[in-house]
C-alpha cells in the first residue's frame, strides 16, 4: 500500500518536475544569469567575503549550469513527490478534507515546512547577496526551520481538527493562529541575514516572489497529479486494495 | 472501513507488516542522498552546476 502511494507520488513528482524543469529553463536560468551579471557590473568591493565564489569565474560553463539546473529542478520535484506520498500515506487519517482535498492540505503543509517557514529567516537570495552568516550556519538554520515548519503545520492541522466540529470557519480560524503567529513573530525576533546592495530592490522582490510562486506551484501540481493518478487507479484495483476501499467509503459517506 | 486504515498508528503498523526494516532503511538513505546532493553539496563543481536551480528554488546556496 505504501508502495502504491510512493509510485503515484514519484509519478506526480515527474509531472510537476517536467513543468518545473521548463520553468527553470525559461525563467530561472536566464533571470539568475541576468541578476548575476547585473550584480557584477557595479559595486564589487563591498562584501567580497560572500562573493568569494561568485566573484571569480565560473568553474563550469554557463551551458553546464543551465542543463544541470534544469535536471536538478526535475529531481527536486520528484524528491518532493516521494516525500509527499510517504507523508500522505502516514498522515492521511489525521488530515482534514475528503475527496482529494486532504492532498492539497498536505501540499500546503509541505510548502509551509520545506520553503515558507525557512524563508522567514533565510529568504530566497538572488545572486550577489551579502550574507550575515556563513554557508554552514545558514544550512543549519534552514534545516532547523524545516523542523519548526513541520511543527507549525502539525499545530495548525490539529487546531483545525479541534475547532472544526463546532464550525468550519472556527476551524479555519484556529488553523490560522499558529501560522500567522509564526509569520509575524519569527522575522521580528531574528536578524536580517540577507541583504542585496548590488541588485535593485524591485528585482529582488520579483525574484523572491517567483521563487515562492514556483515552489507553491510544484506542491499544487504534485497534489493534483497524485489525486488524478489515484482516481484512475481506483476502479482497476476495486476492493482488492484497502486504499481503494477507504477511498470509496470516503466518497460514499456524506 | 478497516480499523488499520483509520489512524496514523494503523498506517504505521500496516507499513511495518508490509516492509522489512531493510527496505525502509534503503528508501530513507536514498531520499537522504538525493536531498543532500541537491541541497547541501557545496563542492565547487556541483555547486556551480546547480547554481541557478538553487537560487531559483530559494535554497540556501553559498
TrEMBL record, chain A:
It holds the Pfam family CbtA. The keyword Protease does not apply. It comes from the Archaea. Keywords: Membrane, Transmembrane, Transmembrane helix. The chain crosses the membrane at residues 9-28, 73-91, 103-121, 141-160, 172-194, 206-226. InterPro entries: CbtA_put (IPR012666). This is Cobalamin cluster protein.
TrEMBL record, chain B:
Keywords: Membrane, Transmembrane, Transmembrane helix. The chain crosses the membrane at residues 20-41. It comes from the Archaea. This is Cobalt transporter subunit CbtB. It comes from Haloterrigena salina JCM 13891. The lineage of its organism: Archaea, Methanobacteriati, Methanobacteriota, Stenosarchaea group, Halobacteria.
